[in-house]
Specification:
The protein contains five helices and nine strands; from the N terminus they run E-E-H-E-E-E-E-H-E-H-E-H-E-H. The protein is α/β, with parallel strands linked by helices. It has one domain: Rossmann fold (3-Layer(aba) Sandwich), CATH 3.40.50.850. A hairpin with a 2-residue loop joins strand 4 and strand 5. The protein is globular and about 55 Å long. It starts with 5 loop residues before the first strand and ends with a helix.
Amino acid sequence: MSNAIGRFAGPGSLGESDCLVVIDLQNDFMPSGALPVPDGDAVVPVINRLAEAFPHVVATQDWHPADHSSFASAHPGRGAFETIEAPYGPQTLWPDHCVQGTEGAALHNGFASARAELILRKGFRPDIDSYSAFTENDRKTPTGLAGYLRERGFKRLFFAGLATDYCVRWSVEDARTAGFEAVLIEDACRAIDLAGSLAAAMKAMADAGAMSSSVDALLG
């Protein structure tokens, strides 16, 4: 299969089975945050434009306890961005971020979150990380989002937010596994890009059968 993610031909008009999924648009992922995504704040007005055009919007929010096992601070002698072997597989260690109830965990105050019909919190289990909006990092513990989206009758999901190569990527892959059409809105996302992780993410999403688009292609 080609490494290039396929282009979405265009929706014609967005309908009741279409939903925008906004991933982790939180203060700690902004350039001044604890785990900054380069240029992450640039997507906030872009996503607000998208949210106005979509009939339905849901959002996710990282929501970690203070001693979360994915934090480097929980592993004496280990540093941020090192990889350890967790019970569920390889786990990147992160700076403490998006701790429950902190300002860093709050959604960016410029994000028009009132348009979101659901804000799903993830990563609250102390012993397992959660990149995907659909499953924890063990790839089997569900967040409940797939069931919610199915019950609402959504079939085609459009993804935007942070970061392309981690939480967006895993959400897109899991959306495909769950049977949804998935479209990555590339210019409404930004990446961390650790050691080539963006290229790997784009290949993984392409292999999963996802498509890509741009804001202008969707909104005209």
